[in-house]
Amino acid sequence: MGSRFPIVASDGADLGSATIQQVESDAPSEGAPATVAVKMSITTSDAGGGHRLSSVSWKDFGAIVGGVEQDAGRASGGPSPQLPDELEPGRTYTGWVTFTAPSVAGTAIWKPSGTAGFRFVLPEPTVPVTTTTSSPAPVVETPQTSEPRAAAPAEVAPAAGDEGAEDPEPVPTPEEESRSSSDDSSPDSSEDE
Predict the structure, then answer these.
(1) Which of 30, 130, 145, 166 has a C-alpha 20 to 30 A away from that of 182?
(2) Per residue in 62-73, pLDDT tens?
(3) Whose CA is closest to 34, among 61, 1, 72, 4?
């Protein structure tokens, strides 16, 4: 990282040169796929036609896990400026390319079309530290007693039919009230009928 290297096609054609200036890796949680951002400086060769580096895309990158190359995934966002979609001959570009990779990958590869690829080390993904705040459960203090308290005996109501169960003023039932009020209003009404 930081050293300029030649970009040479498998057939020996000069495609230009590049420098990987910075690599960042972030993951939303431990073990989750990482978002990798690579800042590159690329100088394309003057050659035209099909033997030139015409683009840099997230699809040109891969992760190496356990010696096996895996395709990168598309990542949204990322640092600015992004490298342009198309590169012109004989120009220098500096910008970022962002992709996703397994967070266990320690190495990545940039493999422009027609090349064997260029490997670089991935940093350990930065995982945000999450903290949770919680308040402890309230402590309820119970009074300490040396002996259990005995409840005072309750007065027992006399059972129905007991002689002591007489009520000095009985409460009339609704039937008794209606008879009583009809008797008061017309004492002779039953005789008229």
Answers:
(1) 166
(2) 999 999 999 999
(3) 72
